[in-house]
Request: fold
Amino acid sequence: MRLLKLLLKAVGPFSEVELDLSGGQYGLHLIHGPNEAGKTSALRALSHLLFGFPSRTNDNFIYPYDQLRVGGTIRHSDGEELEFVRRKALRNTLRAADDQAVIEPERLARFLGGVDQETFENLFGIDHARLSQAGEELRKGEGKLGELLFAAGTGLAGLGQAKQRLQEHLDQLFKPRGQNPRINQALSEFRGIQDEIKTYQLPSEEWMRHDAALAQARATSDRLVEQSRAARKTLNRMTRVRDAIPQVARLRRLQNEMRAFDGVVRLRDSFGAEVREAQDALQRVATTVEKSRLALQELDVEIASTQVRHDILEAGPAIETLGERLGAVEKALSDRPRLEGWRLEKEHQAREILHKLGRDRDLERASELRLRSDEPPLIRSLGQRFTALRVQREEMRAAIAKSEVQMSRIEQERSQLGSPRDVSGLRRAIQVARRRGDLDSQYSQARTSRDRALRQADLERQRLFGWTGTLEDLECQAVPPDPALDRYESRWLTLEQDLRRLTEQQATEDDAIKHLEVQIKALDLHQDVPTEEDLRAVRHRRDEGWRWLRDGHEPLQSNDPEVERFIAEFAPGRSLPDAFEQCMARADAMGDRLRHEADRVARKAEWLAQLQTHKTASLECGHARARVEASRDQWRVEWTQLVGALGIEVPHPVELRAWLRAREQVVQLAMRARDASAECAELERLIADHLAALRLELQALGVSPPDAEAELALWLDRAESVLEQEEQVVRRHEALGRRWETVKDDLARDRGRLQATEEELHDWNESWTAKMARIGLGPDATPEQAEVVLSEIQELFEALGKRRDHLSRIKGIDRDAEQFGEEVGAIAKQLGLALDTSSASVRARELARAYQAMRELSKKAATLIEQRDREHARLREAETDRVTLTARLDRLCQEAGCDQIEDLADAERQSRDAARLEQELRSCEEQLQHLAPGADVEAFAVEVEQADADELGFAMAQRESEIAALEAELLRVNATIGEERAELNRMDGSDRAAESAEKAQTIVTRLQADVAQYARLKLAAAVLNRGIERYRERSQGPVLTRASQLFSDLTGGSFARLQIDDDGGGRTELKGVRQDGKQVSVDGMSDGSHDQLYLALRLASLESWLGSHEPIPFIVDDILLNFDDQRSLAALKALAALSRKTQVLFFTHHEHLLNLAREHLPPDLLFAQSLPTASARQNGRS
Amino acid sequence: MAITFIHAADIHLDSPLRGLERYENAPVDRIRGATRRAFERLIDLAIERRVDFLLVAGDLYDGDWRDYNTGLYLGRQLQRLREAEIPVFLIAGNHDAANKMTRALRLPENVRVLSPDRAETARIESIQVAIHGQSFARAAVTENLAQAYPDPIPGWVNIGLLHTGLTGLDGHERYAPCSLEDLRSRGYDYWALGHIHKRGTPCQDPLVVFPGNLQGRHIREIGEKGCLLVEIGSGGRVTTPVFHRLDVVCWDRWQVDVTDLETEAALLDQAARALDGSLQNEPDPDRLLALRVVIQGASSLHDQLLSDPERYVAEIRNLALERAPDRVWVEKVEFQTRSSRMIPVLDGPIEELRGVFDWLRTDSEALAEMGEELADLKRKLPVELTSGPDPLSLSDPSWLLQQLNDVQPYLLNLLLRSDRGSHS
Reply:
């Protein structure tokens, strides 16, 4: 395949840019694009053209995805041309030059000769980056021939990288002596977990052992406790007996002492205290009686010496009252002159006001002007009322006038509006039509979808491969079920596979036959190898000859033709013996040769046998193939019958399946079209019904309907506007009616109010005239005038009021002073006190002093009498106590059995001693009871008296040591119990071991996955190495010869050739050989040479490949960046040479390369052109 | 009141769940002690329903499990039944017989373990129920035990307790083999069997029933697991057993069909739908779903999937985490896809590689020779990995062949794309 034209229609920066690549047989096409010319975009576009746009691309910065287009014309080596356009879409991306008709991808695939995009980009594309990367790997690869060839053969620049990645991946998983790789880690983790399980696991034996130990320890413990308890009991008893010995002795002593106190009266504990208390009290009472009697005598004398005047005391309240009034009287007398002054001032003021009001100055007549207290506010309110009524009257009049104007306006408008019409019918018709929604657009949509469905169905029917019948026929057609198809398909596949297998097998056999035949021929050519058969034949002849000789045949001549033939064969013209001799010599010679060349003979024999086997096998294959072919023919017949029934021709179930799918789609579309038609008709009928109804209603209203062709919507709009007009008239009528009623009501109300106001004003006038007369003003007086007069009158009466107050005060003062003097005189006279002074005040003060002196004397006499009464009471009480105490002491004597009070002390002492002894005895018995709990004390005492203290001590010591031994033992056993119990508690049924086992399983699972992955990677590495080696073996001959030449050219003769160097250890290394024969290893070459070596290998591999394949254009992207002119030219020449076998597209932005090529390359190979610059494209577009 | 009892078997206490690879954010805590928790649910159920007795038809624990703690735990749980006055009748199965613990274990007195020496009858006088059974004396009992079971007690309800693989049930060790006819001929009312981990009723009259195990432990034990609650009605008629779920982890397989899918997003979308479906299938949020996702179908994604399977496994696990962080453990993602891409036939180095693959597929000796490279690793693997139910047979040609099939897309992808990858 080669490109004739690349059309950058709409992609990246390009619009309709055409590259003519048709020059030459294939041609080296130099495409120069300065920077920014879009060289990379053009390269990418080429890949898009051949293999489609990727789902994401950056080439959409001018054209959106759906407009991206690359076109081209290509030519197959068989001469077929294909012009096509590639667009970006999900399917059908290949179209013919008209950008309409779809081209099946298989057509293009034929041109590409099975090369997919990956292969194309790797094998038929090279750019500078890949070249330098490959050069770099070459250096690192140390000239390993296999890898060099492999990399160059695939065009892979990253083989080394890939191998390295594979190794890294392997190392991440596992290293035999590593710790960190995943598998190593997991293994160590697994071992850890296994240990953990062992730690946590509790063996059955261990538990049983501990359980048994615990039971035994418990039994021992119980026994020891019992023994120790018994020993301790005995010891306790002994201790008590020993402790009781002194107590028992004391008990006996006390019991003896107690006997001496028999017959002593036992007195109460408080007896002594009672006696002493009674005696003390009696002594105190006697002293009290004596003292009281003396005090009473002294008090009587003092009381007799005190004289009190009771009349003065009785006049006390009157005298105190006078004293209190004295201050007030004196104060009033000092105020009187000031009050007189004020009275005169007020009189003068009143006279002045009277004068202002136009009256006499006579105060007595002023009372004529006095108004009732309610009269001034009445007059004032009348004044205010007048103002309000006047304003109200004016407002009413204005409102009435306004309402009258409004009424006349409403009347006018009403007469202008006509009366409303009945539109209910029209409204109903509209509602019914509207309820169905937008029928017009529904109808139009339905029509469109019906048309589309019909069109689509018909289109698909026409497209349906091989179908010429109608849609209806297609729908009615019976199709074979899937299982039947599956059956046919699987049978066909089996047959095809068998056939292919048999053909391959036969070919293999035939190859083997050919191979063997050639080998045998070669062996024979070298020298005819005798066979055993040959030897047998010649020996047989010899034996025949010998028989004839022996049978005495005539030595020189014989009539037997057999003999003659024998002679002619071995010794023509001579005798039988001669012939026999020759024959025997040949048989011997052949025997010798057979012996000498035994292995060659054997090989030939073996090959012949093999040849026979292969021939038989080949024949059998042929037969089997014929059988399968017959089956396939049979299948074809059946298939043709099956498909024939469908009326189409399809060679294969897969295609039939595809056809059936397509058919199903057509049938679906046909059904859809039918549904759409029905819907369309229904809508049409509906619309007609609504139109008729609307026309009727509009005519009834006298409105002309729109023209008959108009859409329903237009009709509805017209009808609705009529309806709206009518409704507006009705609404206006209603509004005017409501307004007229309102205005009428307002007018009536305002007129009523005006009349009421007028009446009120009349009433007011009457009241006003009367009131003005009262204050001396005429009926025309204004409210303001009335206000002035009212104020003056008020002031007048205030002045008169004050004057009257002052007068009455002065009279009161005079009256009080006189009365006070009379009262003082009366009291003094009654008490007989002669008081010389005439002033009532002084006399009153002396009276008060006399009264005070008498009051103090009277208080002293009362105190003395009270003291005497108290002393009397105390004397009586003391005498009573004395009698009581004497009686009590008599009773105590009687109780103690004494005759006299003096004996009481003795009796008390004896009783106290007996009680103490008894107490001691009881305490002793109690102590003994403690030592003998539960037992009789007396019996215990007797037992103690019988015990031997010395023996007791010895026995006790023995018991104590016995107990200590038992307890030590018990302690030890208890520790054992604790330990065993703790041990058993630790065995708590925990699931720790199970949990660890669970964890171990998760690790095992991970290991399984990782190990499998590791195995796969290992296999991958091994396969890769094997593949590299195999490729080397196959290709090193032809490729290296060519590469050697190319390398010499590309390095400008710096290297003469390439050479394989076998280091003897199975490692083949590639080396460069200088002109002088000096060998340079790959890692010893310069960077430039690495690039050239890779290029040489690459071009050689490519040429080798092209020898047996459909040519594919080789795309070179500016690889000569680091080449000097001489080497650049060499590379261009190499590419020009390649262009004799396939098209070479060389993209560069170096103009001098163009010139260099033009100067040196033959014009029938070189075709140069430039990509338009960005600005040129801009102009072209605008 | 009707008599009720529970029939359970194959408890395998403390037997670990297998095949669950740990990954980040996997709900590790939820698989802890799954068999124990299922067993506790069994005990709870018995107490809650106040059943008259509990039957366990063998295999209380795993044969090679050596932790007496398991026995202690078992004893404590059975003690709960003692407190609830529920008697328990056990027979030892092949696993129990293999385990030393069986003999050492001291069980509460409400538990009766039927003799391993001969078939015997346990009677519950109060409700006139006879339980006939025999424990395994050793791990591999190959004689027909059922034949020697005692005759039924007339007028009583007779139940046979037997650990058996029956005859003709494939894929199980044929322990205590017997035919349905053997069982039928005994004239019992109910045969409580154990050993087969899948629930099933081989015979309806009389009822011969396997309750299955309490808790699935690996992907071959999928679906709901639990015990059977059986009622004996008036006249000694045994009604159809009612299944009660007890499992805490439920195993499931879900297939994702990627036929004709072209993008990774579409694949993950499909996987998400499968996960949703699986979650809907198991609405109980308290149950962990151990899920195997099987990706199958012919798709152009095939090469991509096999060239970096780990990434897709991680993606699918992430999907599960997003959907129900604590409910799903994606046990494994299995790739059973086929390539739908046409492979161009060219003769170049790549084709040489394909040739090597073809050669290895047919030449098992050459493949085994390549397998020798794994010797280092093989030596380091513990026996747990190279034996057992899913052994890693590093030198087995069929295993190697299986790996080889996955290697091809990986290798081609590595070579053809690594180059391009370095540029982009």
